[in-house]
Write a structure and sequence with these properties.
This protein is α/β, with parallel strands linked by helices. 37% of the residues lie in helices and 18% in strands.
Amino acid sequence: MKAPAIRFISALSAAPWGAAETLWADTALRLIARGCRVAASVRAWPQRPGPVAELASKGVEIEERSDEGPGLLATAPGFCLTVLQQPDMFAATPWMTLCRQAGQAYVTLTHYGAIHEWPPGDTALALRAGFLGARANYFVSNASIALAARQSALRVLPRAQLVRAPFKVPHGGERPWPGRDTALRLACVGRLDLEDKGQDALLHVLARPPWRKRPVTLSLIGDGPHRALLQAMIRELALEDRVTLTGPVRDIQAVWDRHHALALASRAEGLPAVIVEAMLCGRPCVVSDVAGNRELLDDGVTGFIARTPGDDDMAGALERLWAARARLPAMGAAAAAAARAAVPPDPASVFADMLLAACP
């Protein structure tokens, strides 16, 4: 039997590449390895992003479309399934409508949602029809599934399925615990985007009187539109001696060789890979109860969950972390075991199986 032809349409338009693109890109390569014909449509940029160039070098047919239309690949014949990748809850809605009206088999893949971001009225109705017309709707967290149903005016999404995103650390075992000196070293790994990631809440907690007297450091790892604003905030709050902006880091495992816990004050998410990575490396997490942040964690056992990303709730969760300093190595070991139980070693291979099963 001839292997099917599958195309991916990425609706990402705000940046050349993002963390949410990793699952479809890795899955495309798994399908190539199984003999499938694979194509992908991405937005054109003045310089081709490195991951797109790698996909092309390994056999994925690449369309770099202008931002003025859906591109030609979306309606090209010869494909049995179209995978519509959207970085947020409704970016791929125009392609859903196009596929649905053309009678094409398609699935959706959604990484992120925010309760405060709702589609305009016409888009909302098209999103509802688009989700219902798909052969499957894939999401990275159960909370995102519930939000998608709500924003589509549905009680449930009948064909919603959970998928896991790839991660950049070994699956098999946690890292040794960092040196047992007196300092507690926290890391916040993520895009420097205060609207979604909420790093400002962490800074304002560390600026409170109890924390100024404690040996605690925070590394903000990543880059993004609010880097300069965060630098100004660090200076304004007089946190230069304990908060560091490291920039992007390729070796995530090395981050956890130096840090004791992940601190994440997200205001909007799907389920961040950084939580999975920290847990697999044997590090407890302090997270806001937003989207899928809590779904792998057991509060007080593998991490601490703040009710909201607000300053007071994050301060309470971090206070519990501080009080549990002696238990953190054991919590980290429990976190690693929980992550290995919940996340497969190769999520892209699992997703490839799901796409092949979804083909007509």
